[in-house]
Write a structure and sequence with these properties.
The protein is an alpha+beta fold and 134 residues long. It has helices at residues 2-8, 48-62, 90-99, 114-133, and strands at residues 14-15, 20-26, 31-37, 40-45, 72-73, 76-81, 84-88.
């Protein structure tokens, strides 16, 4: 564990809550961040050589398992493309629907034009103004 602490203590550790920590390392040529939440860890940064050094130190201290590129974390689905990284909560939303027993419900599609929306907003505002005046 000493090797890992020496490597990570280059920059101070920031703690957010009871089980959420971030460790950072900055140099003139790279930035590395290690996020730890309970027993999940994310490593992000700009230098693969620093990644390898950190993963080796963590493995020696904690016997970690490299699961490859991030796919899910805290209910977020992580997808990569040539345009960048996107985050999606589809899986989390489906789990919420399952918990509420709403997965078998039919969808209702409403086609509203902006004109309909503005008319409804005008009616709502008129009602609110009438209530305030009364």
């Amino acid at each position: 564990m000493t090797q890992c602490n020496c490597f990570l203590m280059i920059d101070p550790c920031l703690q957010f809550g009871d089980f959420f920590f971030t460790f950072t390392k900055s140099t003139s040529t790279s930035f590395t961040a290690l996020l730890v939440y309970v027993d999940d860890t994310i490593l992000a940064g700009t230098s693969l050589s620093v990644f390898d050094e950190l993963k080796d130190a963590l493995h020696k201290a904690f016997r970690i398992k490299n699961l490859g590129q991030l796919k899910f974390f805290l209910g977020l689905e992580v997808a990569r493309s040539s345009k960048g990284i996107s985050l999606c909560q589809r899986k989390y939303c489906l789990e919420l629907l399952e918990d509420a027993k709403l997965t078998g419900c039919n969808l209702l599609v409403l086609h509203l034009t902006l004109r309909h929306v503005f008319i409804k907003m005008q009616v709502l505002l008129t009602l609110i103004l009438q209530l305030i005046e009364d």
